[in-house]
Amino acid sequence: xxxPEDGGAGGASAxxxxxxxxxQRVQRREDARLLSGHGRFVDDVTxxxxxxxxxxxxxxxxxxITRLDVEAARALPGVVGVFLGSDLNPAVLETWVDYEGGPxxxxxxxxxxxxxxxxxxxxxxxxxxxRYIAEDACELIELEVAATHPIVGHxxxxxxxxxxxxxxxxxxxxxxxxxxxxxxxxxxFASAAHVISRTFDQHRYACVPMExxxxxxxxxxxxxxxxxxxxxxxxxxxxxxxxxxxxVPENRVRVVMGDVGGGFGQKMxxxxxxxxxxxxxxxxxxxxxxxxxxxxxxxxGQHAREDRMTVSWALDDRGMIxxxxxxxxxxxxxxxxxGSSSIGFVGVVFPGPYRIPRxxxxxxxxxxxxxxRSAYRGPWLMESVVREQMMDAAxxxxxxxxxxxxxxxxxxxxxxxxxxxxxxxxxxTSIAASLxxxxxxxxxxxxxxxxxxxxxxxKLLGIGFGLYVEPSGLASGxxxxxxAVVSIGMNGKVQAVMSSGSxxxxxxxxxxxxxxxxxxxxVDDVTxSQGDTASAPFGPGTGGSRSAVILSGAAEAAAxxxxxxxxxxAAHQLEAAVEDLQIxxxxxxxxxxxxxxxxxxxxARASYRDRSALPPGAEMGLEEKVRFxxxxxxxxxxxxxxxxxxxxxxxxAVALLRYVVSEDCGRMIxxxxxxxxxxxxxxxxxxxxxxxxxxxxxxxxxxNVTFVDYxxxxxVDVPTIEYGHIETPxxxxxxxxxxxxxxxxxxxxxxxxxAVADAxxxxxxxxLRQPLxxxxxxxxxxxxGLAVSPA
Amino acid sequence: MKPSAFTYHRxxxxxxxxxxxxxxxxxAKLLAGGQSLVPMMNMRLARFGHLIDITRIESLRSIERTxxxxxxxxxxxxxxxxxxxxxxxxxxxxxxxxxLIGHFQIRSRGTxxxxxxxxxxxAEQPAVAVALDATFDVVSSRGARSxxxxxxxxxxxxxxxxxxxxxxxxxxxxWNGPVRVGxxxxxxxxxxxxxAGAMVQLQVADDDEVVRSAxxxxxxxxxxxxxxxxxxxxxxxxxxxxxxxxIGELAVAGIADVAEDAHVSSAYRRSIAxxxxxxxxxxxxxxxxxxxx
Amino acid sequence: MNEMTVSVRVNGQPRxxxxxxxxLLADALREDLGLTGTxxxxxxxxxxxxxxxxxxxxxxxCLMFAVxxxxxxxxxxxxxxxxxxxxxxxxxxxxxxxxxxxxxxxPGFVMSITAFLEQHPNPDExxxxxxxxxxxxxxxxxxxxxxxxxxAASARARR
Lengths: 791, 293, 159
What we know:
The complex is a heterotrimer of chains A (791), B (293) and C (159). Chain A has 791 residues and is α+β, with helices and mostly antiparallel strands. Chain A contains 20 helices and 28 strands. In chain A, a hairpin with a 2-residue loop joins strand 23 (587-590) and strand 24 (593-599). Chain B has helices at residues 14-24, 37-42, 78-83, 85-90, 92-97, 104-107, 112-118, 124-131, 149-152, 228-234, 244-253, 266-285; strands at 7-10, 28-31, 50-53, 63-65, 69-73, 135-140, 143-148, 153-155, 158-159, 166-173, 180-186, 196-204, 210-218, 225-226. In chain B, helix 11 packs across helix 12 (266-285). With 293 residues, chain B is of the alpha+beta class. The longest helix of chain B has 20 residues, at 266-285. Chain C folds into two domains: 3-79, Beta-grasp domain (Ubiquitin-like (UB roll), Roll), CATH 3.10.20; 81-158, Orthogonal Bundle (DNA polymerase, domain 1). Chain C is an alpha+beta fold and 159 residues long. Chain C has helices spanning 25-32, 89-96, 106-119, 125-132, 143-158; strands at 3-10, 13-20, 51-54, 57-60, 73-75, 81-83, 86-87. Chain C has a five-stranded mixed beta sheet, with helices on both faces. Chain C has a two-stranded antiparallel sheet with strand order 6-7. In chain C, strand 3 and strand 4 (57-60) form a beta hairpin. Classes of the chains: A alpha+beta (791), B alpha+beta (293), C alpha+beta (159). Chain B binds chain C through residues 1-8, 10, 31, 34-35, 38-39, 41-43, 51, 53, 55, 79, 102-106, 108-109, 189-191, and chain C through 2, 4, 20-22, 24, 27, 43-45, 48, 51, 54, 57-60, 62-65, 67-68, 70, 112, 115-116, 119, 129-131, 133-134.
């Protein structure tokens, strides 16, 4: 299945304690409770007197609310309260998230008020003794809307004179990146041997975590304290937001993130309905719970990815890229979440793994009468989707093999450190090596032979690459740092309290590995806790492929400080020099001499109770906190995906025959975790390209709001994934780690699209939009005039 | 997504079910496997004042063989059909088609009666019934009656049963002598509803001559289509001389009512049906099974 | 509220609850019996997160009303241990093969795999993937889960 190159001993970081755990496939601490049904997800939380929330949501994409009568709903036995926009919206004071740093003019309202702006927008919030009754009450609400023609799609949003989705704005442009004038680039284009232009579309699809969103909110009026349990990627972000929104001092807001069933970006920041739940509970003075159902999640839980990009490449006769122009339009829906529009970042990352000397880029994000956009695993990945397709398109037009085309243009190691046309600096990447490893693993040359033979028999096989660099360890704004508080108790056991929490990334295990190695103890002697603002230091939440880099950086640094202190105390007790001591299996000895030894527990006891046993002037206790920032705002990792597919000419169905990932995320803490994260991302990319679609009709009605229509990939749809690991340690953090949590989802869409395109390229057609459903592929074959023989 | 309220009834006797249906009329719905009904109720696309649970009625769970028919109680679950030796030997087409229904968790609860009465155009068992000229035994307060398969399915999710009638059993003819069966369907993912599919049952003489065939196409129209033109064409021809592609085209050619929706065009659906008929034919042709009459 | 009494054997113990007829079995397990290991992912029978064993068969608890379970034998994830806190073999295989990340879909997979291996003790990879296709996972790409089924099947075959 995989061809791992385990971390093992050695590496750029001088780990004094050795690598018993880091680099190993340590089995997860999280598993015991999750496998036995004892996880603690938000819907598992219950408090006495809990009430339940359901929302009435708009069936219209846009229009004026002409009637909203809730009297029958209020009168239904079991209903405790019904809230409208006029009740809740004025009670929300501020709506910016920590990451934004202040109000940014992002449209936000808890409930629709006066008008509706997308199908699924919450219009009324019902609180009742059960979700069943709350839904009964919703059905009794009389809502009438004088519908107006909705703005759906980029073109409608940008049409001259288009009605603004938000009447308080003058247009539908949410954000703009202006192209900088570049006469030099103009000259390059004018004189280039080849100029190739294409427009690519990426369709709308969504994060779809298996656990929908949910919140339990308990407002204690006597104490003026709010306790919120929420399925989120960042507890502190929720605390900060709610504190500002509801004007409750943040030190009286406690947010608890328990087990979270996936987020992928959708749960990074609070969304209006969640805020409504907390507010309703506060107004009622009763504990309330809302669990989003799947229909709500698919319709209104935020969507992602809907982008169109037009690019032009200037190339020389050898296919070397001389310059790039790009223009992007991103559809962000009516109420985009914070940080969802990464239109700027697309331009910054676009050059990716190639030597692109010059680039001009412009972009717009537009509002439409559809569900708002959230971040989704590599929110900027349109850069790879477009660049990698363009690579193949340019190669085809110039008669150059697509692998060869990449080889000619990649940034090779001898060019490092390399500064891209957009000012990004790569220093520890292995771009060319990953391309070669992927090509070797997939058997590129043999495949081309097989492909030719297959074509002779009417079989359509194709191969595609997705080569990219990933801006991981994102460290800017509130994401600039993470903290760890590591302590050793009276009995020698270690606790690490982390600033940001896991929503599936195995942090309870990987952090324990790092700390255990640093302290010379068993990984089972470390527990990792996270996600409770009452105990965890401030964190921005997990996202941005940061955990391995920044959280482990903090854990490593705190564990190091603890180790130093332990050794100082032990040296004092053993009357030895600190440099001569080692810790192994929780025992401190002089190197080379098994006795005398003292245990970590005894050192800990001394630190808490016996000041005289400590070196003079030493602070008592064994607790250290470190807030860590990597030395750079971006830690670049890189990867190459390669995929082989077969297209069934009768049906247009795509089968993925092989899937290979060559990845470099620096030193791996746990290869199982790395591979698992990649695999999950790859499955999301496969699903996105072949199956998933948040489609709307012209009236703004979402068409895929249940799992019958929104198709997630199953075990049949995802092939076995083969891994090649390259370890070029990062220099931005002592562990040498790089992030790759998003990479699987970045490399897969281009690899799969390119493979399908390659399978049918000889017929003279090329897909420019997805999803590549069997119907869509069959239509391309029809366009190519391919007669279908069912036999 | 929680269903709206209803009064729940559960009976051990079919006569009580009939009485309840008569009493409550169209405000009542039979609850068998629930694999189609409950999702619709959870989404509040369907609501009934009364649900009548028929899953404990023993008389609906029998599988019996008469000399030339297999009679299957409407309450027999798909997972039971899959594992039943009598079904495997005497109703091989049904036996081949049933494992294609959804996923095994669905088949743990879903019943053949439920599938037939629900009459989804993309469902497998209605197509088997139409292919083999099954008959449906139906009861109400007015007594029992028998409905031929070709009269039973009248539209998408519509049968010719009255609202107060209960499907008691379905009876499939057993062909005398060895048969070969082939089933093929195409869907977006494994276990999804078919975009189109086909059922084929053949009898071939020792000299390779096709002596009898039954071909049905499903998913294409609002009801399963019996391809009698194909059956007439292949009769008497050598199996080896029959071109599956030609069979596919012929089976679909006569069908005028082809479904079209936001996801799948009628032209595409038609081309899939052609391919599936050909594939089902090929599977039947190469099916090595020997049937016991 | 129109409530009915339901007597059902859950994880080997006789239990009795009072619920509205429309209460889904998944909700009754979670709320009335406190067994929150069974998760709700879609409420329309597609994702499989709510899979339990009913009289030995894997079923979707979101597609049954609790009242329908009268007199039945229900096994939930909490009832699939190897005894005295140890993990059953399917759980152990999932653990060793890194078959879970966020864990939300996991109980449903364990129950489905348990039932699947009873019917298919020696499955090949294709049969495994088809057998797993009624459960959705968003984190793992199914790689570890497929490996876990193979491992559990092999281990059982060796015994």
